[in-house]
Structures are given as C-alpha cells and as structure tokens.
Design brief:
Chain lengths: ~425, ~240, ~475
C-alpha cells in the first residue's frame, strides 16, 4: 500500500512523514499490534490511499429525537453546531469551540511542530508510527472546552459521505471538561459504502468533572478506523474525585482498533470502560486499554463483551498499571467472548503490572459458545432455538447496557443492538 | 484479672468507646449487652490489640499494661477472642492451624511443644466434646464452614488454648438452638474458678445457658447500667431504648 | 507445616552456598567450534552427535538473544565462559558408587541427596549432575529389570543411540531460540529416561543439579520418553554455591508422551539467588517443553521456583494427541533483588484437549515477579478447555507483580476461563493468627503456604515438605 502525496504540500511536516515512511505501518512484530497486523490488513485492502483534502461545507441535521446540544462533522470536518445553553449563555465561561484546519490551530500539535523533540512527554504523548502518520496528514478536527454543567446531552454527529473511496482521513480532536457534569454521545453515521482508512488522534482532559461518554457506531460501514485516545483524569484541587464512564458500542465498522490510554492522575478518581459489540462478516475489532493508576484511592473498571460470528475477530488487550504511589487502588477487568461459529476468534491479553502492595486488582477472561443448557432450558419454556439464542445474546450484552444510567441513551443503544441482533440469521 | 479505667477508643476522628470502667476477677463471667453501634465489638478488638484504634485510659491485665503489648503476646498471656466473623484462610488446614497456634502459646509459656500425634489426640478429644466431626480437622480453616461450624471451631480453639480470659464476641449470632446449646455447654464445661469470661451479646438467649455474674449495658461507648442476670430479662422485655 | 523461628534462623542464609574443593578438568574458555569438538570428543560421542551440535552452533550464529522478557540482565560474555567442567577424578568414569570421589559424596550428603544405595528407604532413584557431568545414578539395576532406562544423556548417546536419535530435538528443535540453540550446541550432560510400553515406573526418578565450578555455564539436557501406556514421575532439584559473579544455567528439557502415557515433572529450583544487594546469583534461562504426542496422553509440570537471580522459563505443553491433557502448577517466589518471568504455553492442537494452569506468584523486597503465559486453542482443537488461575501476592511496596496472559480461542466448541488477582496478604487473616498467639513471621508463613497449597499438594511427599520450608525461608525478613 502506498500513500499518494502528489497533491499535497508536506513541507512543514516532512519530518513526521519521513519518520512514518521510515517506520512503516505497525505489524505483529510490535507487541501492541500482536493481534492486529495493520500492515497486512491495509496492504490486502488498499493499493493506494490518498489523503483526503476536500472539505465539505453543506449542513447536516441533528436527528435524535430528544432535546440535546450538538456538534456535526462531515468526514471529520466540523460543519455546524449548537452549543447555546438553555439559560441563553454561550460565552467563553460556559463552552468554547475551535475548529481545527491545520496543525497550527491545534494546541498540542503546534507545540510538537515547534519542538525538535521526538517525544512530547509532558502531555503523555508518545510519537509512534500512527501518530507520525496522523501528524503528517491531519487537516481537520475540533477542540472544545466545557466549563459548566450541561443540562442536556451533547451529541457529536460524525457523518461520512460517499466520496471516500480509498481515502485517508486524518483528524484530531481535543475535548476538555472542567468543573462540570456532562453527558456526551458520539455517533458515527456512515453513508460512504466504500473503503477508507481513518486515523484519529483524540485527547480528553477531565478536571474535577463527571463525564458519561457514549461512543456509538450507528450503522454498517466499510471503513477502517484507528483511533488513539489519551484520557487524562485530573484534579487541580486535590481529592475531588473525577469520574469517567466511557461506553463503546462499536459494532458496524469493518475494521476498528480503538486504543485508550487512561491516566488516573487525581486522587479518588474513577474510570470505567465498557464495551459491547456484535461482530460478524469478517469484522475485525480490537480494543486496547492502558489504565494507569498513579495516585492513591482510585478505582477503575473495564468490561468488554463480544459476540462473534461469520469469520469475525474480537480482540481485547487491556493493561492495568499501578505505580508504587497508587496505594488502595481498586482495579477490575473482565473480557468475555461468545463465539458462535468456528470461523471466528476471540483473543485477549489482560495484563496487570503492579508496583503497590495495598491494592485489589483482578481480571477475568472467558470465551466459548453459548451455554447449551441455557438454550435447552429456554426451549422447555416454549422459546424456539433461535429465540432462545437471541435471548441469551441479549442477556450477555445487557450486562453492559444496563449500566447506562440515562434512559434516553439506554433506549438508543438498546435499539441499536436490537437492530444488530435482528439482522442475524 | 482485667482492669479497665476510663478506657477510650476511636478510629480516626470518630470516638467509639468514651470512658469505660470494668473490672473482671478470676472465675467471673461478665456479659456486655448493648444495641448495635454501642461499641461492643470495638471493645473486643481493643482488648485483643487490633490495629487501627487510638486507645487511651488504663488497660491492665494481671496488673500489666496491655497497651504496650502486641496482639500475639496478649494471646500468649491468655487473652482469647472468639471472633464474631471467624476468618477463612484458604489452603491452611485446620489441624495445622491449631497446632501452630497451640505450640506458639505453649512455647511462650515455657511449656513443651506438642508433637503432631499427641496434638491430634488432644484436638479429637476436645472436638468430640463439642460434637465436631473429625473430618473437619483436615478441611481448610473455616473455608466453606457454615456459620455454626465456624463458631464451634472458635469454641474448640478456646478449649484447646485454655486462656485465662475468654472474650466471646456475639458468638451466639447465627446459631440455631442446638448449636447454641453445644457452644454454651462448651463454655460451661471449661469454666472454673481461675478463668474468666467476657460475653458480648445483643440478645439474652445465650445468657439462658451461660449464667453471668454481672451484666453490663453498654450504650454510646459507656457502661450505663450494671446488674445481675435479671437485667437481661428486663432488657429483653423493654429493649435498649431506655438507655439511649 | 510451619517452621519455628529458630529453625528459620538456622536456614536463614542460603544453606547450599558452600563450594566443594575438587580439582576440575575444564574445556578451553569461549564459545567456538573448537569448544564443541572438545566437548564431543571428551564424551567420546559418535559422529552424528557432533554434527548435530555443529548444526546448532551454525544456526546460533544467526540468532540474537531475545529481549522481550521483563527482567533485563547485563550482557553475557559468552567467550569468557567455560562450557565444560568435570571433577578430575571423573576422567575415567566411575564404574560404581565406590569409585566416586569421597568429597563429592560428602557434597551430596550436605545437599541431602540419597546417593548411596543403602539409602533405599527413601525410594527415590537419583541421577546427580555435578557441573557438567552426571555423577552417579542409583537404583539402576532394579529399574533395568522393568526395561526402564534411567541414565545420563551421555550414556544414552552411547548405549541407546536409536532412542536419542529418534527423539532428541523433536520437541525443542535446534533452531528454536537463542538459549535453546546454545544448549543444543554445547550441552554437557543431563538425564535420560525411557519408560517402555505399559510400564508404570515404581519409584520417583530424580536428578539433582549442582553448579560448583566458577565461570562455568551449565547446559544440561534432559530427555524423557514415556512410551504407550506408561507412567513416570520425575523430580528435579537444583542448588549452586554462593559466588559474586552471575552464573548461567541454560538447560533444555524435552518430554514426550505417547498414547495413553503420563509424565509428571516436578522441579524445586533453589539456585543461589544472589545476596541481599543483588550481587551474584544464577541466571536460570531454561527451555522446558513437553509434547503430548499420543492420544489420551498427559503431561503435568509442577515447579517451585525460589532461587536464582533471574528465572526465565515457560514449561509448556503441546497437546497434539486427541484427548490429551496438559497441566502447569507453579509457585514463584522472589525476594530481595530477584526477578522471575515465568509461566507456560498450552498449545491445543488435538480434539478434546484440556489444560489447567495454576500459578502463584509472591513478590517481596525489591523483587519483580511476572507470570507470562499463552493459551492457544486452534481451529481444529474442537471441544477443548482451558482453565487458568493466576494469583499474585505483594509483600511490601518496592516490589512488583505482573500478569501477562495471551489467550486465543479459535473455535466455538472450546472454552477458556482465565482469572487473575493481585493483592497483599489479608490483614484480617494476619490479625486472626496473631490473636491465636502466632507472631508475624509464623502467621505469614502459614498464610502463604495456604496460598500455595494447590500447587504444593501436586508435589510428591518428600519434595512437598522441603518446598514448604523453602517457601517460609524465602520470605524470611520480608515482613515489615
């Protein structure tokens, strides 16, 4: 696979581009890519990728029925938004939104651009192959800050249109939330019907806040997605105890690797990563997490549930890192795969790296088929085999869904998963 | 034997025992009754030396200041606590635990350590007195034991270790009537003029079987009333509300 | 059982730390073809064996030392090592136990190994490897009556070349990885076991390894073949003197179980771990692998790893035969500056294969303890199962405990269950034991032995008692 750079100016980002060329795409020889050989996957699906440069400026409508704020992007480009708060205020004291069109607009990238360092360690950022690639081509994204409680959910609509055949989308978003309680729903609505590769870099800064974040792949897509998320949970006032609940409903994309690095940097912080997915038709999904506990009394929970069929691959690589300072850490991780046919695979690498003694850390991982006794039991109660199977699948995923506190969001997700289960058989 | 003067104990900022006076002489059975949260279990923990409490006041056992002494040394001097919730220790077999415990205490008191054979004989003897099946000796300590079995195991340990002062922390809770009787018989058969008991309980029913010489009512960290066995019956009728 | 404090005091220091003053014959220093020819010649090996070694050596030239493991170690200068060292009196190999240098016998007495025939009571047949050569094998006669071959690998090369040729390197090929290939090139001695069809070996077979000479690498090679329907239980123990320099031990162990055969392999590894500051100690880089080649075969690994500066090994099972079973029971204790990166691989290839992994890691002082494991159920290994339980205990705040499992399930009829926990010793349990009169050390020893119980009970009796003591001693002084 080649990247066609004939139409773009790489002057300012030459060193990132060169470093990308030098290192190439990551492959399974890299520990982090052991289960997902990106080099091989992209090579067998693309001959050439062309960096997307076109910027759409038509508008799209927010379509969710309940009352909400919104941001709308098309192919990663921010096009319209409504962040006017219910009390009428929309000033720098409540929210702030900036559109990113080049690296110079980007608070972090502009810093990296100016520095000669290979690594920008202060921001928990490590310039690896994927970030070099992102830095070389990023031309879109948004950065927003929230300083005040939002009385309604904020929905981020990401539309992808028909013009993406063999395109490379590179974007970067920054989300910073302080002293607020917010609910954010990120929806991917893909109408492209074509193969493209999207390489996204996102950073979240959560400060003295409580954030519920829901990422939902709304429909089927042929897109190949890699997203790196750096999430910093911090408190400038000490011991407030910020909370993040992050839900991933990724069914849909042909290929996804969602990489999360979560830094629990404030005492008493709480982080939860939950995912439920139904994978089929050669889908390949990996969720990779690194939960870094560096302060005492923090809690983290991870629960990953995959249903796998028709030659699909589900992967979870999850690491819990507890530094010697992080006493009284509570960390739990669970990954479960329900493998419905012999063409599918579930691989996990749940990892604990612990340097503090007064901790409770554990993980569990199971995989296998549906419990035949349970199917039998349901059939004796009058359900057909098909119905019984669906019933069990729903129960399996409900373990994650039932943790969604907001009923509007829960309904949305339930419908989304229901849709996926129904299309089964 | 035990003398407590103005005993106070707190966890962090929260004070739980707020000036408690109590004297127990050899051969006496004392019962402490009180509502939930009155400080009963804290008293048991403080007497055994559990970490995490700030303790002040005078705490003497056979004229020795207990406060300077570690948990195991107190045990070796003859203070025994029957736990309200006996701990499960996976992988550790019960007879091995009993052997280690008994020999630690014997050694500290200048007695000869028992070899496995005489020890097993001794344990079996005591176990049969309590109607405990021998098989339980090879089971893991308290793992998978029912509530009643755990409590009987505590009494077995008491009889084996022959302490001077036995503190029974709600040993009656979770016991059916048969188990209660066995536990009470265990205590009664062990009781003599040289050893003493401190029975901590919420209800009067254990006191139907073990006759205390004194009953103390503990409320909000202090003994608010002391009487003889009639007091328990009165409490059973009127509850603790009069003492709040 | 628990240790009384006094006993622990006695054993507090590494009691196997003595050296034996024996004149040695050593190969020339350095790793080269000449050394390999020297080893092969002194052992009077046939040509095919020399060629096998040279092939491995050629392969070695293109290999690099692996670097993915967690414990890092200073570069080993392979040219400064001796690859062969033997007590001088061995040049003419002793015919019977009476010909063995009395100093050696004394050494083994100190180690508590029943070398002499009269110590039959223990009922354990022993092969002892001192530095590079096998010293003596007991109970040989009785085993021979059953057709069991239990001898040094050097002897097997001479007397049973057809068996060695057929099986050597079939589980760990000479191309495997750096240390395994190095071993194939320069291995000096080790044990060989062959159990004929339908024979249940009536006693435990045991090898005791001892590194004595300085600057010497120990590269022993063990090959165990359990023919159809046979059974053998094999024990391995290791010690080394205290020396300031690090010593390399890179053994290869290959197990082969044919149809309906079972091999039980137990290790109590107590190589010198280095001192409290982390000076000296053995680098234990060992490749152990078993092939359940026949249907209904079973291989079970049990290991108690308390010694070595660095332990780095993954006793594995390749479950080729249908209905075959692989088991791995492990206790790894690290204290002071010790590092361990150990675990297993269970490769399910046959149908209805089962594997079980129980790992207990205990880390104290400034040590670092990693469980690393792979469970791979292939597409055609239908109806297979794995159960894994990894528990880690941390004692103190300067050590680390890590769990890195790789889990792959590639068919829908197979089930994998994996659980892992990391915590410190439960304080309520300690309190309970203290209240029953035990001091901190007794209480910790009791609780830790309980924590390890599932693994300890897999060991044969004689070893289990020794292992329990080791568990207590290894943690001595680590309770704050």
């Amino acid at each position: 696979m080649k990247i066609n750079t004939s139409k773009i100016n790489l002057n300012k980002v030459k060193r990132f581009y060169n470093s990308f060329l030098e290192n190439g795409l990551p492959n399974r020889k890299k520990e982090d890519w052991k289960f997902t050989d990106l080099e091989k996957i992209l090579n067998s699906n693309f001959d050439e990728l062309e960096p997307l440069r076109e910027k759409e400026n038509y508008k799209m409508e927010a379509f969710l029925k309940f009352d909400h704020y919104y941001l709308i992007s098309i192919n990663g480009e921010l096009v319209n938004y409504n962040l006017k708060l219910s009390d009428g205020s929309q000033d720098k004291k409540s929210t702030n939104l900036t559109k990113i069109s080049s690296l110079n607009d980007h608070p972090i990238y502009s810093k990296i651009l100016k520095s000669d360092d290979k690594k920008v360690s202060s921001d928990n950022i490590n310039i690896d192959e994927m970030l070099s690639m992102n830095l070389a081509f990023t031309d879109r994204g948004y950065s927003f800050q929230i300083f005040k409680d939002l009385d309604k959910p904020l929905v981020i609509y990401n539309f992808f249109d028909e013009k993406l055949e063999n395109k490379l989308i590179s974007n970067s978003n920054l989300i910073s939330i302080s002293n607020s309680k917010v609910k954010i729903i990120e929806l991917n609505i893909d109408k492209s019907k074509s193969n493209y590769f999207k390489n996204t870099f996102q950073k979240f800064q959560i400060n003295e806040s409580e954030v519920d974040y829901y990422f939902v792949n709304y429909n089927k897509s042929n897109g190949f997605n890699y997203t790196k998320n750096i999430i910093e949970i911090n408190d400038s006032k000490s011991k407030f105890g910020s909370k993040l609940k992050y839900f991933i409903f990724g069914s849909g994309s042909k290929f996804r690797k969602d990489d999360y690095e979560i830094f629990l940097d404030g005492e008493n912080s709480f982080a939860k990563i939950n995912s439920a997915a139904i994978l089929k038709k050669s889908q390949h999904h990996e969720i990779k997490t690194k939960m870094s506990h560096s302060e005492p009394n923090c809690e983290s929970y991870q629960k990953i549930k995959n249903i796998l069929l028709n030659d699909s691959k589900g992967i979870f690589q999850g690491k819990v890192l507890v530094s010697d300072r992080a006493q009284k850490t509570n960390a739990y991780q669970l990954s479960k795969g329900l493998i419905l046919d012999d063409e599918s695979e579930f691989s996990t690498k749940p990892e604990l790296e612990i340097y503090a003694d007064d901790v409770k850390c554990s993980h569990g991982s199971t995989s296998g088929n549906i419990d035949k006794d349970a199917v039998f039991y349901l059939m004796t109660r009058g359900l057909s085999k098909k119905e019984a199977t669906k019933f069990i699948i729903k129960g399996f995923l409900n373990d994650v869904v039932s943790e969604i506190a907001d009923h509007q969001v829960r309904e949305l997700i339930e419908n989304h998963l229901e849709e996926n289960i129904k299309n089964e058989n | 034997m035990l003398k407590l003067k103005e005993l106070k104990a707190s966890i962090g900022e929260k004070s739980i025992i707020k000036g408690l006076n109590l004297e127990i002489n050899p051969g006496e059975v004392h019962a402490i009754m009180g509502p939930n949260g009155s400080g009963k279990s804290t008293l048991a923990n403080v007497l055994s030396g559990k970490d995490g409490y700030t303790v002040s006041g005078s705490l003497k056992f056979e004229d020795e200041n207990l406060q300077e002494i570690s948990i195991e040394e107190r045990a070796r001097k003859g203070i025994f606590l029957a736990f309200q919730y006996p701990l499960e220790i996976p992988g550790v077999n019960t007879s091995n635990f009993l052997k280690t415990s008994l020999n630690s205490i014997r050694k500290a008191n200048g007695k000869k350590e028992l070899d496995t054979i005489s020890l097993i004989k001794l344990i079996k003897e005591k176990a049969s007195e309590l109607n405990i099946d021998e098989k339980f000796l090879s089971r893991q300590l308290n793992v998978g034991f029912s509530g009643g079995e755990k409590k009987k195991n505590e009494i077995l340990q008491m009889k084996l270790l022959e302490p001077k002062l036995s503190i029974l922390d709600e040993t009656d809770s979770g016991l059916d009537i048969d188990a209660l009787r066995i536990v009470a018989d265990g205590v009664n058969s062990f009781k003599n003029k040289n050893n003493s008991f401190l029975i901590i309980t919420h209800y009067q029913r254990l006191l139907d079987y073990i006759k205390p010489d004194f009953i103390h009512v503990l409320s909000d960290g202090k003994i608010v009333k002391t009487g003889c066995s009639d007091l328990a019956k009165e409490l059973e009728k009127t509850g603790y509300k009069n003492f709040n | 059982m628990t240790m009384k404090p006094k006993e622990i005091d006695k054993l507090k220091d590494y009691k196997y730390g003595f050296t034996t003053d024996i004149e040695n014959i050593k190969s020339p220093k350095g790793l080269n073809e000449e050394t390999i020819r020297y080893i092969s010649k002194i052992k009077n090996e046939p040509n095919w064996m020399l060629n096998w070694r040279l092939k491995a050596f050629n392969r070695l030239k293109s290999l690099k030392e692996p670097n993915w493991q967690k414990p890092k170690y200073p570069k080993i200068n392979y040219q400064e090592l001796y690859y062969y060292s033997a007590p001088k009196s061995f040049k003419d190999k002793p015919k019977s136990i009476d010909d063995v240098d009395p100093k050696l016998i004394e050494t083994y007495k100190k180690l508590g190994i029943p070398l002499e025939e009269q110590k039959r009571l223990s009922g354990v047949a022993v092969d002892a490897v001192f530095d590079s050569v096998s010293v003596a094998t007991t109970f040989k006669g009785e085993l021979e009556k059953l057709g069991i071959v239990f001898c040094s690998i050097s002897e097997a090369i001479q007397k049973h070349p057809e068996l060695v040729k057929k099986y050597l390197g079939t589980v760990i090929p000479i191309t495997d990885h750096y240390f395994a290939t190095l071993n194939s090139a320069v291995f000096t001695d080790g044990s060989f076991v062959y159990i004929p069809p339908n024979v249940k070996c009536p006693m435990e077979l045991s090898t005791y390894f001892r590194i004595n000479a300085s600057d010497t690498g120990q590269f022993e090679r063990t090959l165990i073949i359990a023919d159809k329907g046979s059974y053998v239980s094999y024990l391995e123990g290791c010690t080394a003197p205290m020396r300031d320099e690090n010593q390399l031990h890179a053994a290869n162990v290959e197990l082969i179980a044919l149809d309906d055969a079972e091999i039980k392999y137990s290790t109590v590894q107590n190589w010198y771990p280095g001192d409290e500051k982390g000076v000296g100690g053995i680098y234990n880089f060992v490749t152990k692998r078993g092939a359940c080649r026949g249907k209904n075969s079973k291989i079970s690994w049990t290991q108690v790893e308390t010694g070595s500066a660095i332990t780095w090994k993954y006793p594995s099972c390749i479950l080729q035969g249908d209905n075959s079973v692989g088991e791995f029971y492990s206790i790894a204790i690290t204290n002071n500056h010790q590092k361990a990166d150990t675990g297993t691989k269970m490769i399910h290839l046959g149908k209805n294969t089962k594997s079980k992994i129980i790992s207990k890691g205990i880390s104290a002082g400034k040590a670092d303890n990693t469980y690393r494991g792979l469970v791979d159920i292939s597409k055609r290994a239908k109806n297979s199962r794995n159960y894994t339980q990894c528990d880690s205990l941390l004692m103190g705040n300067k050590c680390g405990a890590h769990t890195i499992p790789y889990i792959k399930n590639k068919n829908s009829s197979s089930t994998i269950e994996h659980e892992a926990t990391t915590s410190k010793i439960n304080e309520e349990q300690l309190y309970y034991c203290n209240q029953r009169g035990m001091d901190q050390e007794e209480a910790v020893s009791l609780i830790v032995n309980g924590f390890c119980k599932e693994v300890l009970q897999q060991l044969p009796m004689e070893f289990a008692v020794e292992a329990q003591k080791l568990v207590s001693i290894s943690l001595e002084g680590s309770v704050g």
